[in-house]
UniProtKB/TrEMBL annotation:
<feature type="compositionally biased region" description="Polar residues">
    <location>
        <begin position="1"/>
        <end position="10"/>
    </location>
</feature>
<dbReference type="InterPro" id="IPR001753">
    <property type="entry name" value="Enoyl-CoA_hydra/iso"/>
</dbReference>
<dbReference type="Pfam" id="PF00378">
    <property type="entry name" value="ECH_1"/>
</dbReference>
<comment type="similarity">
    <text>Belongs to the enoyl-CoA hydratase/isomerase family.</text>
</comment>
<protein>
    <submittedName>
        <fullName>Enoyl-CoA hydratase/isomerase family protein</fullName>
    </submittedName>
</protein>
<dbReference type="InterPro" id="IPR029045">
    <property type="entry name" value="ClpP/crotonase-like_dom_sf"/>
</dbReference>
<feature type="region of interest" description="Disordered">
    <location>
        <begin position="1"/>
        <end position="21"/>
    </location>
</feature>
<dbReference type="InterPro" id="IPR014748">
    <property type="entry name" value="Enoyl-CoA_hydra_C"/>
</dbReference>
Amino acid sequence: MSAGSNAMSSEQKEQAAGADEIVQVRRQGDVSIVTMNYPERRNAFSMRMRVALTEVLHRLMHDDPQTRAIVLTGAGGHFCAGGDLSEMHASTAQLLALRERIAVGVRLFKLIYTGTKPVVAAVEGTCYGAGLSLAAACDVVVGADTAKYSCAFGKVGLLPDTGILWTLPQKVGGSKARELMLKGDVIDAAAARRIGLVSEVVASGGALDAAIVAAARFASYPPVTLALLKASLVNAGNSIEDACRLETDLNPLTRQTSDHAEAVTAFLEKRKPVFTGA
């Protein structure tokens, strides 16, 4: 056996190193797959989970040019059951500590929603509370036909957090978002797809594979254009003037990229373009 056959690839090393971590990362081509790994509590959104997810996603968004798209999923057949109630001891909670807990969630939401790279949620099983917030922050949600969704904050005496006060109305409309937040009802995959919360419904057990396919498609697009498009989608919805200003300001930037020139050349030469992010 050659020496090279015993060596682990960088992807294998990354996966092995994170095997016992609360957040695991592995790469498949240009797609990084981020797994919430707290299956004994259905990947509850503990403080440790919040911090670890924020650190991982910040690195992938800002310090990893090999990653062009991200898939967010959960271990053990569930996405995320929401906040970890075992941490919520009102008698010992301090105001500043509670503010920091919420602030970490806000930073994580902004990384996903306003980050430069597309994020696809792969949802199996439970997607409740902060889990729903994470899914709603993603650009695309692929869910299993057995997945269940609930904006369950009010049932435990909390206000919706991790950005869902913004994202849920954006995805499903103000009236439906208000209903989901006030009632906290559990809805099934068909209803989630019907109202626009979920982009694609697949057979149980197939959400991750389908999400990777969707993310790989995004990863094949020009990275600069995707980053500017995400920025436009975040900022263009405030007014018609904002939308027109962004169109006028940002479109000339994309026209100057090497990837745009490559796309035109590849089209004329009838071949697949090769984008470099330049």
